[in-house]
Write a structure and sequence with these properties.
Layout (H helix, E strand, L loop, with lengths): L1 H21 L10 E9 L10 E4 L4 E4 L5 E6 L2 E8 L6 E7 L5 E5 L10 E3 L4 E3 L7 E5 H5 L17 E5 L8 E5 L13 E4 L2 E3 L29 E7 L2 H4 L10 E6 L8 E13 L8 H15 L22 H6 L3 E13 L3 E13 L7 E15 L4 E14 L48 E18 L4 E20 L12 E25 L2 E26 L13 E24 L3 E12 L8 E11 L5 H6 L3 E15 L10 E9 L2 E8 L8 E14 L4 E13 L1 E6 L8 E6 L2 E17 L3 E18 L22 E2 L2 E4 L6 E3 L14 E2 L6 E13 L2 E15 L40 H8 L6 E3 L2 E12 L2 H4 L3 E14 L17 E11 L1
Parallel strand pairs: 1-7, 13-16
Antiparallel strand pairs: 1-4, 2-3, 2-5, 5-6, 8-9, 10-15, 11-12, 13-14, 15-16, 17-18, 17-47, 18-19, 19-20, 20-21, 21-22, 22-23, 23-24, 24-25, 25-26, 26-27, 27-28, 28-29, 29-32, 30-31, 32-33, 33-36, 34-35, 36-37, 37-42, 38-41, 39-40, 42-43, 43-44, 43-45, 45-46, 46-47
Amino acid sequence: MFKTTLTLVMATLCLNLNAYAQSPGAPFLSKNQAVSGKVISASTGETLPGAVVKVTSTNQTILTNDKGEFMLSLPNGIHNLSVSYLNHKTKNVSIQIPLKGLLLITLQTDDQNLKEVEINTGYYTVKDKERTGSISRVDAKTIAQQPVNNVLGALIGRMAGVNIEQSSGINGGGYTIEIRGRNSLRADGRQPLYLVDGIPYPANSITEASLGVEGFSLNSSPLNYISHTDIQSIEVLMDADATAIYGSRGANGVILITTKKARQNNESIGLNISGGFSKISKKLDLLNTAQYLELRNEAFKNDGAIPSVTDYDVNGTWNPTRYTDWQEKLIGGTARQFNVQSSFSGGNEFTQYTFRGNHSKQTTVSPGDFSDQKGSAGLNVNHSAFNRKLNLNFSTTYALDNNSLPQIDLTQYIDLAPNAPDIYESNGNLNWALDENGGATWLNPFSALKKTYLGKTSTAMLSGKLQHTVNDNLSVSVNVGLNSIKLKENLLTPISSQSPSPWAIGINQLSFNAVSTWMVEPMANYMSVIGSGKLDIIVGSTFQKDQQNAENLAGVGYTNDSLLESISAAPFKGGSSASSTYKYNALFGRINYSYKERYFVNFTGRRDGSSRFGANRQFANFGAVGAAWIFSNENLINKNLRFLSFGKIRGSYGITGSDQIPNYGYLSTYAASDYSYKNESAIFPVRLANPDFSWETNKKLEFALDLSFFNDRFSFSTNWYLNKSSDQLVGYSLPDITGFTSVQYNLPATVQNTGWEFLLNATVMKGSSLKWNTSLNLTVPRNKLLSYPNLKGSGYANTYAVGKSIYTPITYHYLGVDPKTGIYSFQDRDESETLNAADRTAAEKSLTSHYYGGLQNSFSLKGFQLDIFFQFVNKTTRAPILSFAPPGVPKNQPVQVLNRWQKPGDLSNTQKVSQTYGSVTSQFDAHFYSDYFSDASFIRLKNLSLSWTLPAALAYKTNIKLFIQGQNLLTFSSYIGDPEVPFVKTLPTLKTVILGVQVNL
């Protein structure tokens, strides 16, 4: 009997233990019901292991397992759950027991909880509250809300101290980015350092400039080849404390791009499908036919002339009643886009992996069947072994881009005469409106669409980190990586794309450009507790090599378009090639000490070696010190200022440098000649040697204050910075007798950038269902050329002025239109009665942004999320009218020219019209060198994103989000064109709207 009873007891106990083992929560009670659930992140769709699930009525608390799952045992009735997770907003859920199906709980990320956010600095991570440097961050959620083709487009207006301007609305066009101003006098020495998963990434275009692909060859950005959906975060390092560890490479700031990594060990599938359209954001108001012809006829009258046989628009050759809106014809179309992103993640507690695939296709606003198609695949693997003491992270991405967009930007032709001929003849051929001699009477803009361009880009990125934890204090690691970009371009110029002529020939141009970078960085990290403080030491080394190769081949003289694709069939062939190698080595280190979580000091240093300098100048030392005091942790402040939840004062000072100059600048270099000498190949000198120039230096100083109030409901930060860049690496002008125009040199010029940065974050409303967060950033920069000895004797005498901003041009002073003569007038400073260089001086205003920033508002209501972002810029630019030809010549004009001078006594900003490019228009040309500026300030609804996460009852064990996103939707500005794009006759930014669905299983 005893054995039987004992057996029953043991069997019951085993059943209970088995039930307990299957549940991560408390054991089941016989009258309770089992509740199964899963906790996921709303921003990423990934499960959240270790989330806290608390039953408020019973105080029963459990943690989700490694798959984000949990199990509760609850009696029948209504129960309230509180679910929380790090950096996510706590969610209260009411459930009714019995409950059918899986309980899916979605947590929103808490962007306001700044003090626990981990900031990536490249070589180490630091909690936001403990950082001593100036670092801005944009996360994957913010990036994913924006339908952009370049990751830089997702940063515009969102970071204090980071000024980004889009060069044009062309897909694949470039961006101008300046971090805390312009440090270098050289245009090619202002780029920040880009790192993708720690590996340097090229900043400059590798497109062959001679092909002129849709006008962006010199400005296209290699970052176009990286899908923004693959990005986990972007950090921008600005001050010396944050950048000095990168030495010379961090002189203009550092942009860290981190791709998405495997973070969960349960299987999940993600799919994101979206599609939409784009149109130009703004059209110019140009003259109609009647207005245009009125000005043309008036121009002939003013000049006392009559239309010649070549003035086709007014001599009766072209129809005087015909009207064509060339903006509508050339750039008024609708660009379509379609995007698909997929991901698959899985693994176990030792190995996690994620695979991503992307495909996108975007057409153009120009007529014709043109598109840019991109595809990429990426894999990331995390692996731990030997009791997690050995960790491996490996990432690889391969991307392809097929670009067949038009060869030129058709926006340059919007000033065609509105009564110009039809584009096509009745037979479908291009119409050249031939005159009686068989010559074309106009340049048909659609001829550019007959040219065939195809650019094929392949991008391979590999990075890996192997880390071994030696003991509790010491770890050693090695980072390795490779970036490779290869671009093959082919441009065909058929005879059919040219006006009828016996000299018209076909041309085939081929180019191949390749850029590759490999890097190895061994590093050791030592951490220890010393008294009431923590010591963190990093030492490491960098070995880097960049290789660039270019090959060009051209076939010229084709007389038959059918042979155009064969280079061997070309009557004349020619080619060229070039290669360049850059080597870089460095030693770096960091010492960080924190005391009682109140006082922090950070020392960073780097010794750089660059192959761009002579033997005695190859090495330089850079370093910085940063310190911070969290005064809100002091007992006195804690007790008396309870409304202050966080307060920190920080500052830094250090020196970085720059070696952003062409390779081999210290050597005498030669190039192959097209001519021979004594029947042998010949070379000629192209550069004069100077082995003595050295590194640019950039001294940076910063002070900052960070505050949070009322349990972090409101936070405020302000930074003041002072940067001085000296030993400018520019070309020193030489007399013609030397045979060279300049030589590479360190000029004794010093450029200063100062400014204030302000950031404000507020949780305006934090109810149980409705939440409203707002954030504002504002930057007020200032720039000045502090010194430049013997500036007047240099090649920059007519470019810069000491004491003025380097954004300030040297100009004639515009006085307006002379009411008597109707001609533009300018101040004659030397009273010589002619305009010359002596009449030019520094303008009163700078051609730059005087202040800029952005305002973000985020609203959430149950499953709905609405984000609205406004960008604002106060800037000055050259008057947009200067992008057009002088009024009166056979080119269309903005309607503003209708208010021109017509008779003595008229007051106008437009001089009398003239049909020639003679003496009258020469005064117009002086405008290009005058201070005739325009206010290009604007406020733009940069981004709007609305999403709805379906309730669990509708989604059924999945996370489904529907979304609509808009970019560049509204612009408020008095500027006649697109105020963001620097040139009026460039494709303006595109207004984009997309719809999509995101599914996570």
